[in-house]
């Protein structure tokens, strides 16, 4: 059935497509760039269609190349995982998770002890970065947790929960806010599309006159700094109900007018299709689902 498949050329194509570089594919496969180019040209000749656009300093997949890459990458990944599962068990399995610094610090890390207790043989590493990682190109990352308004039709995903923004502060600051205009704490959002003019939207909905009163603003680059400022009594913070949940649960922060909130985006756990069957990834997906449900966050349907 598979006797005529050009497996060497297909492996070269998968590497060059994922890295978008013949030179990088050559380094990964320990061959020369000329060998990679020859393998891909022979594959294109065998198929009868071009797979790459050769540009002056880069290569780009054609539509046919994109179709082949997505099916081939998932198939090779599944084969690699099946082969790995047959080997004698090593001391532990590795799992690389990428997410934002705020989600890691305020939601994920405080709960990870329960994951470690259940899966002591999984070595989990966290990469915290606000830049969006292309999972099709970076095979070192097993799973990402993203905060976004977008859909990801080319990835396997679990939609964890929707988010809303409300106002929180220390008990003393919340009590004072009923008598006088508070200091307002905000965040410089990395993606302004996600939540623009947050305080204005909340004050309009709450019919509070704070914005007309010219309040003092304290602004921070990250959500966890803003929450720490609110915990320290520096003012009220407009914060995600997801990221503030630990602080509210411990009594460090309390909501001000909790019935008033504005919509945010959603959190999703995503991986390359096929990778969700890899045991460490499958275990992490299951644990995430249980933690989201236990925290009382409204979950969305799985993707």
Automatic annotation (TrEMBL):
Transmembrane segments: none annotated. InterPro entries: LysR-type_TF_proteobact-type, LysR_HTH_N, LysR_subst-bd, WH-like_DNA-bd_sf, WH_DNA-bd_sf. One of its GO terms (biological process) is DNA-templated transcription. Pfam families: HTH_1, LysR_substrate. GO terms for molecular function: DNA-binding transcription factor activity; sequence-specific DNA binding. Residues 5-62 form the HTH lysR-type domain. It comes from the Bacteria. The lineage of its organism: Bacteria, Pseudomonadati, Pseudomonadota, Gammaproteobacteria, Pseudomonadales. The gene is gcvA_7. This is LysR family transcriptional regulator. Belongs to the LysR transcriptional regulatory family.
């Amino acid at each position: 059935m598979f006797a005529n498949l050009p497996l060497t050329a297909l492996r070269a194509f998968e590497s060059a497509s994922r890295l978008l570089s013949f030179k990088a594919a050559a380094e990964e496969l320990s061959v020369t760039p000329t060998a990679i180019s020859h393998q891909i040209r022979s594959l294109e000749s065998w198929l009868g269609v071009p797979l790459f656009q050769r540009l002056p300093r880069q290569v780009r997949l054609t539509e046919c190349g994109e179709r082949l890459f997505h099916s081939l990458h998932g198939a090779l990944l599944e084969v690699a995982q099946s082969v790995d599962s047959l080997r004698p068990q090593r001391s532990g399995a590795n799992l690389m998770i990428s997410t934002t610094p705020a989600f890691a610090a305020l939601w994920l890390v405080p709960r990870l002890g329960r994951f470690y207790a259940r899966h002591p043989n999984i070595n989990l590493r966290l990469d915290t970065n606000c830049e969006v990682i292309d999972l099709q190109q970076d095979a070192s990352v097993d799973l990402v947790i993203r905060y976004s308004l977008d859909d990801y039709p080319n990835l396997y995903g679990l939609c964890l929960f929707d988010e809303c923004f409300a106002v929180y502060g220390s008990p003393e600051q919340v009590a004072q806010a009923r008598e006088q205009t508070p200091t307002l704490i905000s965040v410089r959002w990395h993606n302004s599309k996600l939540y623009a003019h947050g305080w204005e939207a909340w004050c309009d909905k709450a019919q509070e006159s704070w914005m007309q009163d010219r309040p003092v603003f304290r602004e921070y680059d990250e959500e966890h700094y803003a929450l720490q400022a609110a915990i320290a009594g520096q003012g009220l913070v407009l914060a995600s109900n997801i990221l503030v949940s630990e602080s509210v649960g411990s009594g460090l922060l309390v909501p001000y007018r909790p019935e008033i909130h504005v919509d945010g985006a959603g959190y999703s756990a995503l991986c390359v299709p096929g990778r969700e069957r890899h045991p460490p990834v499958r275990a992490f997906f299951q644990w995430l689902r249980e933690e989201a449900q236990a925290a009382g966050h409204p979950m969305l349907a799985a993707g």
